[in-house]
Amino acid sequence: MRKEFPSLVAVFLLCICGCAGMANPYASEEGLVVLHYSIGQDPKGFDPVRASDTLSSGLIGQIYEPLYQYAYLKRPYTIEPCLADGMPEISEDKCLYIIRIKKGVFFQDDPCFVATNGKGRELTAEDFIYSFKRLADTKNDPEGYWIFQGYIKGIDEFYEASQSESPTDYSKEIEGLKALDRYTLRIELNKPYPRLLWVLTMPYTAAVPHEAVEYYGEEVLNHPVGTGPFRLARWDHWHRIILERNPTFREEFYPSEGTAEDREQGLLRDAGKRLPLADRVVLTIIKQEQPAWLYFLSGYLDVSGIPKDNWNTAMSSLTTLSPQMEAKRITLWRERSFSVYYVAFNMNDSLIGMKHPEVCKREIEEKRKSAEEAREKGDSKEAERLDKEADELEKELPYLPQKNEKRRKLRQAMSLAYNRPQRIEIFANGRAEPAQGPIPPGFNGYDPNFKNPYSEYDIERAKLLLAEAGYPEGIGEDGKRLELSFETTGASTTVLQSADFFRQEMRKIGIVINIVQNTWTEFQEKLRTNRAQTYALGWIADYPDPENFLQLFYGPNKSPNPNNANYENPEYDRLYEEMAALSDFDPQEAKRKYELCRKMEHIVTEDCPWIFGLTYWSYTLNHCWLKNYKPHPFAYNTYKYHSVDPELRLRLSQEWNRPTMFPAYIILGVILSLAGLFFYKLKKQSE
Amino acid sequence: MNMEPGLQNPTMETSQEQPARSLWSDALHRLKKNRLAVFSFFIILIYLIVAVLCGAGLLATNYDEQSYKIDEKGNISLNSYSPPSFKNPLGTDIQGRDVLSRVLQGSWISLRVALTMSAIYIFIAVLLGAFAGYFGGFIDDIIQWLYQTLASIPGLLMLIALTFVLGKGLTNVAVALGLVGWVGLCRLMRAEYLKHKARDYVLAAKAQGAGPFRIMFKHIFPNTFHIVIISFSLGFVHAIMGEVVLTFVGLGAKAHEPSWGRIISEARAELAREPAVWWPLLSATVAMFIVCLAFNILGDALRDSLDPKLKE
Amino acid sequence: MSAYIIRRLLYLVPTVLGVCLITFLLFNVVTTGEAIAKQRLGQHATQEQIESYLKTHGYDKPLLIRFFINLKDLLTFNFGRSEVTHQKITTMLWNGMWPSLSLMVPAFFFTLFVAISIALFTALYRNTFLDRSTVVLCIIGMSVPFLAYIILGQYILGYKLKYFPVTGYEWGLGVFKFLILPGLIYTAASLGSDVRFYRTVVLDEINQDYVRTARAKGLSPNTILFKHILKNAMIPIITRVVVALPFLYMGSLLLEDFYGIPGLGAMALNAIDGNDFAVIKAITFIGAILYVLANLAGDILYALVDPRVEFK
Amino acid sequence: MNFLEEKDALCKKEEPLLEVVNLKTYFPIKSGVFRRTVGYLKAVDDVSFTIAAGETLGLVGESGCGKSTTARSILRLVEPTDGKIFFKGTDVRALKESQLRSLRRHMQIIFQDPYSSLNPRMTVASIVGEGLRIHEKLPWREIRERIAFLLDEVGLSPHHINRYPHEFSGGQRQRIGIARALALNPSLLICDEPVSALDVSIRAQIINLLTDLKERHNFAYLFISHDLSVVEHIADRVAVMYLGKIVEIASSTELYNHPSHPYTVSLLDAIPLPDPKRRRNVTPLKGQVPTLAHLPSGCRFHPRCERKRPICETHQPPLTEVSPSHSVLCHSPIS
Amino acid sequence: MEVLLCVSDLATYFETEGKTVCAVDGVSFEIKRGETLGLVGESGCGKSVTALSIIRLIPTPPGKIVRGSVLFDGEDLLKLKESAMRRIRGNKISIIFQEPMTSLNPVFRVGHQIAEAAVLHRKISWNEAKELTVEMLARVEIPAPKERYYDYPHQMSGGMKQRAIIAMALICNPSLLIADEPTTALDVTIGAQILRLLRDLQSQLKMAILFITHDLGVVAEMAHRVAVMYAGKIVETADTLTLFERPLHPYTRALLASVPHLGKKTKRLFVIPGEVPDPLRFPSGCRFHPRCSSASDICRSRLPELRQYEDSHYVSCFNISSEAKEIPR
Predict the structure, then answer these.
(1) Considering the domain boundaries, does residue B53 fall inside one?
(2) Nearest alpha-carbon partner for C221 in E170, E64, E86
(3) How big is chain C by its Cα radius of gyration, in Å?
């Protein structure tokens, strides 16, 4: 009967362990400088060609390096060489770039370098050509191909060819990509590409050694081999990622230039020190916001955002930290986030869409033409079908302007009913502003004086417009209430609550919104196949050029490309094409570009393919022991600048985490007394 | 001392005109003595009434109405997350909607899910169980194979796969729950039919010339019906709990449907707010808890009063 | 005995085939090859790409041939790569299995131990206040939704009292502190139904004739309880345990999701989120196979515990 | 139904009501990996007997000897393997399922267990009236009258018509069972141990009831029992079964006064008599009853037989007639 | 002969759903050493409850021994502590139950279950107990006892199991054996074997037997004395011969008359009218009066005492004198 006692002892011991700070999630780290960050998802992998999301980019950027990078401390955002040796030489016509590459840069040691017994090989210009070719190889699902598409001479042919080749022939030359010698890269463009330098900072363009791809095959996404400051030490899926200092990292030093403000914030204390400063980066994957926030408060994470539900804990006003945070000596970074949150309408939709007569005419022509072709081929059925469609479009054509006008009014009405201030209050704790147009405040090309006529919450005007659109009080001509479906981008609480809120907003003007719940993948599929009627999304800038936002309305960029609203306006497209070729660096061109932006902005806000919703402020908190932290909206390789004071962290986090023991003792008491009763009865029975 | 048959009427003198008591009324009688069970039954009844009233749009109609508050400066803002008060006894949710009304509406949703599910799974289970148990042989082999195979597929994944076929939403979740959930009852029914098939009264019915369907559904089925009832009452709990999990996983109630699962799923973040928003979680959980408890107690009492094994 | 085992093994064949058939049907009705191709190839895929994908992945073949290919793939555990993460599914399963097992196995057996202990406890105190209140507590415990256990457990024990880490995982021995809280929650949530079940089992056995014989022999109640009754009770206990065992590998979906344990349950949830059918299919299949194997193990265990089985 | 009535007309007076010829009912024994049939459980093995109209044949034997299976095989509640069953000249085994149903109204059965033989969820009226409802398309009122009459006939009050079986005692339940069997006016009643589950005092009531009913309606009974004293009381002729075979069949007086088979002798000896003065001192039969699955070779009784000869171990004994209407299945019957 | 067991005014009630079932209501009898007392009665009359009350195996609750005393060897068993009672069970008093099929634990070997009692009471090792068990198995005429020791219950036939149970009951040489319908569930020929075995064993071991049965034939064969129970009461006790020759209580007489008698074929059996009373609703007064042909007013109102009628012949009836001589046969 004594058998049960060890287990009781075990329970007791567990409770003792509880006292000894069991809540600390980390093992000891013997004086190493370790950064503790968290990410919300398991990354998709470490293959630069698939670095399409910020999460993967942020990790790939630490291991793989592109030619250029953003200067860490400088504002406005400027580019400095990374693997390139100096800025490129650009020809007069802006179509030829000569880029020299740093000598003596080695890839990290890895078993894939069979020839050198695992020692890393030196980086050459060929590596970039190879990496760019990978980006144009369809077999890699290259999500970043769009950055070169149509620009580098010959790359489109390579892309086309890779679809049918198996395996893709990498020995085939791309006309616009040449290695003049071991360390010189020559890029030739079809047309001027003023954003090329921005693009060359993106992890898509980082150098990948062909040995790694050949050695690991598809598994290369688990075995990154880069030139960067860190290397992947361990990846426990959905649990954590450990990056370690790359011992063969080239010599790079902490920047010593900075503003007075930077100096005041201590950002220049490590000036001139060799990078990376940290020995290790531990990225814990925490899906939910709450636990991550709690870990941050307990001192187990160095940086955190502020979850909307914890706003009151963190802040006492929009700009000041709460006393509790002050007491913990937490630093607040409040910056504009270059993003727009919007509700998009599908312009192909017959209830809310818009079809420009010119576009319609073009479509008719195209249809006739392909009908002709089909007839020549002998496929009369197909031809007939196409003809029929063309006929219908032709019948439609005269009514289009009138219909477009009505539907535009409907969209404008919905934009007016969209209650931005209330959204900001309940979903963003006030840390956002109504978006006026596609370009967020503070961004290149933003006009602070521009006011979107449909961004003010005005139910009365909305109802008026709705009536003009043919839906007085939301009832259509057929006597039926207007019903629209709204596709969610996921099933998280916030997404659903926000969708439900949208439903309420539209209900106020008499429109019924049917919320369709999707997973992210399902949603993407619906976008791709044009099946979404309305949906809410956001766009985060890839690089500091307004083109990045304005391209979202460019006709040829329609689904499956990023123009998921399928907006097409020939006038807008002409303006866009002109604007896209202009550079921000040339003052003359920049001025023209600004003007064009204004015009385009005006067109989209009037046509209203999106309800321009909110633009956010980003709030970041970091603990006092984290050094050299400065948020950067575009840079993906910043961990190398960060550092911590491990002793301070250990001391403070222990201080902050003391469990309350008495409930445990009560529970223990109850359990023990029940066990006592059990043994008492057993003993009594055996007597 | 000899008695002619037809003359005697032994020992029944006390109960000449006493109304007949079937096992059912007997069980009901016993059930009535279990005060807890009667109480539970009334609680369930109240829930049902509330659910039906909500469904008919007579109760808690303001569940989807936002409410506003005016602060000292006269600004009107949404009455988001207001704690329980006289006006909103269980507080409000993020959009200022009355939690009490939403929780009441939740009972209607739960009732719908549970009824749909039960109808489907009881129908399948009884039919297949009866066939497998009564006919045996090849039919039994096939049905056993079917439910063994189904039972071996993890239930939740099966549900997910089914909801992908049927589409998301509560009705489909209920249908999927029904399509997946019949295995247990079917197994029980099969065993019961096997047992009863061998009973003499079935042989007697056969000897009277009753056909297989008459025997299966007129003779045997009433003897297994208590199992259906117990399974039905516990199935309710299953459906209510299942809705919560599936809604959490994103397959159940839609964003605007005030189901208990929806409310509980949202509660996770709300609870961690400062100050904590505990009222939606607590209201939905307590509402659910009470009805589940009532069903569990009633199911238990039903088991006790209907199980012929205990009766003998 | 060996004939018995061989027969049981042969019984597996139709079930495994059935599982293959159902998974195949589900996942071919659910998603067409084209949909998978589009997912796999990304948004920018052209029609030719999709067609070549369909060809290389065998979607152009007739359904029956595809079934056999699918069968071969499943039976050789060749699940291919995830459609979302591009990782090898076998590796994912292997990596996810350990966290799941490290959470569920101790939690499960701890629960089993506690539940059986409490069941014996109530058997000792049967028909007393203690026994009745245990039953009531069990029913109460069963009526609380699982999600409420998780949310409240995490909130109170993790956030407020700071006994355990709120979330996280660790490879190696250090993991235990992460597993206690979810483990305890699992125990708390499943204790109610478990105790009730085992209590019924023990009480059923106590009322058997052989117990009376043993008492007539003069054996002490303790010997009867721990020797005679417990060994008999093992038979239903094994049934329950065996049916539950294969689901251990899946972990508890919700527990893993809430406590950040990178096991198969969390993986399944992510797969659901990402419509990652290849992964769902693999998990479903592995789950089914494990269920089938566990049943086999259970049958063999019966034969060991219950001498009567062998001769049936 | 018609074919039977036609047969009825043709049926000659001397033709027995029921004739069972070489009836065999085997149950397959399955074993091994593939559950192949490795042998047969010969529950009824080559049984022949006849029952004349209005006659009572007692069938006696220990449990598991195949008595009940014989009864059920005759009604085809269990499918016989081989042999012939003639009921009023009709070959029962050749009937189709639908014809069989109408045959069954002429042959009815009373079961041993008064608890499991009545459906607990049906009222007395629907239990007793089930056959009427299936076979006679009468209005419910008439059926009710018939039921009331039947209940009266078996000694139950017609007030009980709407009660449920669990409200009755064992004896009363058995009466309900009898009423159900009587409902369709059968000419043969098979009584499968109708009194063995009843208390002593009730047993006498039921036995008397059966005797009275027989007198009144001139049924033929196949009366199955393990209790020789009850059988002696009620049967005109008695057949003794041992391990699936009838080992002795004779008229009641003949069998009890001059048992010829050693098994019959031992069976008679084994019965404790309620008379302390006649306390027997014969050695009871040795050994266990072999199971039907492992039948001994030769004469099935030889392992327990005191009179066994070498031939008994190897050869099945023939059915020998020791006197008219007295046959024995033995190599050396006791004379 | 010395009195071994003296039961006086034993009453055991069961509480179910607020109703009290007086299963045994004031039963008194005694058994002498080496003697067999037959306890006869129909089902539900309280025979088995009496037996279980003696060795205190009444499931409590719902059952409860409400009064009376059970003197065994001069010691009141009802006043013993449970642990002391355990030392008597299976040791000095053993019991055999009706259902051999379920009375053995299916998951333990038969031999082990028998030896368990020996190990417990005789304080011997398992090896010694095993030898003793094999010996005992041989004694109850189980063939190949050494092999059978390792059998599981399901491998034995009903008769064998009953023998094994007898071996278990007798392994500690009890001075009293309670046999609760030991042959009811068995076939006639096997039952006869068991009866004979019990008789033989009794003469070898000199134990007393309380033999409970509903079968008058078995009693006639086995018992030295007979007690007839009806509705929780003993209505008549006498020497076996006396009882069968000169039954006095109307119930006993009717019972004897209603049994078909082998070799004495009658046209009709004698019938006791009515049903065995429901233990929940025993009739007032003499419990047999509703079925008794000679019941008078006093029978309906008063409960008759058990009175001595002749030497060792006790009857509880008010109307003995008038009907004593004639037995309806």
Answers:
(1) no
(2) E86
(3) 24
Q: Is the pTM of this model over 0.80?
A: yes
**Token pair listed for A346:** 């599908």
Q: Mapping DSSP to helix (H, G, I), strand (E, B) and coil, where does residue B211 land?
A: coil
Other CB atoms within a 10 A radius of the CB of residue D183 amount to 25
The CATH number of whichever domain residue B128 belongs to comes to 1.10.3720.10
Amino acid residing at C194: D
> Which tokens hold the place of B219?
């003779």
pLDDT 10s digits, A586-645: 888 889 999 999 999 999 999 999 999 999 999 999 999 999 999 998 999 899 999 999
Q: How many domains are contained in chain B?
A: 1
Q: Where are the domains of chain C?
A: 2-75, 89-305
Cα separation of B239 and E289, whole Å? 59
How far apart CA C180 and CA C107 sit, in angstroms, is 8
DSSP structural state of residue A122: B
Residues of B in contact with E273 (CB under 8 A): 1, 3, 8, 10
Q: Are C148 and C231 in contact (CB under 8 A)?
A: no
Nearest to D83 by CA among D24, D28, D17: D24
Q: Please state the length of chain B.
A: 312
Query: Which residues on chain B are in Cβ contact (under 8 Å) with C284?
Result: 153-154, 157-158, 161
pLDDT (tens digit per residue) in E224-242: 899 998 888 888 888 888 8
Instruction: List residues bridging with D323 in a β-sheet.
Output: D326
Which residues 79-108 of E are in CB contact (within 8 Å) with A?
82-83
Is residue B254 domain-resident? yes
Hey, is the C-beta of E268 within 8 angstroms of any chain B C-beta?
yes
| Dihedral angle over CA of E103, E109, E113, E114, nearest 10 | 100
Distances in Å between the Cα of A436 and the Cα atoms of A338, A447, A450, A598 are 13, 10, 7, 12
User: Which two structure tokens, joined as six digits, stand for A462?
Assistant: 């909305």
> Which residues in B lie closer than 8 A to residue A535 (C-beta atoms)?
none
Question: Residue E101: pLDDT band by 50, 70, 90 thresholds?
Answer: confident
CB contact under 8 A, E55 and C216: yes
Contact between C69 and C61 under an 8 Å Cβ cutoff? The reply is: yes
Q: Are strands A512-516 and B68-70 parallel, antiparallel or unpaired?
A: unpaired
Query: Which of C38, C167, C187, C222 is best to mutate for the A interface (most A CBs within 10 A)?
Result: C167
pLDDT below 70 — which residues of chain A? 1-30, 686-687
Asked whether at least 3 C-beta pairs link B and C within 8 Å, the reply is: yes
Q: How far apart are CA B103 and CA E204, in angstroms?
A: 80
Radius of gyration from C-alpha coordinates of chain B = 25
Distances in whole angstroms, Cα of residue C213 to Cα of each of B192, E90, E103: 30, 9, 6
Residue D295 token pair: 């039948």
Of the residues E37, E98, E246, E269, the best mutation for testing chain D's interface (the one with the most D CB atoms within 10 Å of its CB) is E269
Give CA–CA dist C142/C157, Å, rounded. Answer: 20
Whether the CB of A66 is below 8 Å from some CB of chain B: the reply is no
Residue B20 in any domain: the answer is no
Instruction: Please check whether residue B48 lies inside any domain of the structure.
Output: no
DSSP A173-193: --TTEEEEETTEEEEEBSS--
- Which chain D residues contact residue C10 at CB under 8 A? 33-34
The CATH label, of 1.10.230.10, 3.40.50.1950, 1.10.10.60, 1.10.3720.10, for the domain at C89-305 is 1.10.3720.10
Q: Which of A324, A273, A281 is nearest to A302 (CA)?
A: A281
pLDDT top residue among E178 and D2: E178
B9 touches chain E (CB under 8 A): no
Q: Is C273 on the interface with B (CB under 8 A)?
A: yes
Instruction: Look at the block and give the residue holding tokens 């693997």.
Output: A83
Residue from the list B8, B30, B33 with its beta carbon closest to the beta carbon of E273 = B8
Within 8 A of C9 by CB-CB distance, chain D residues are none
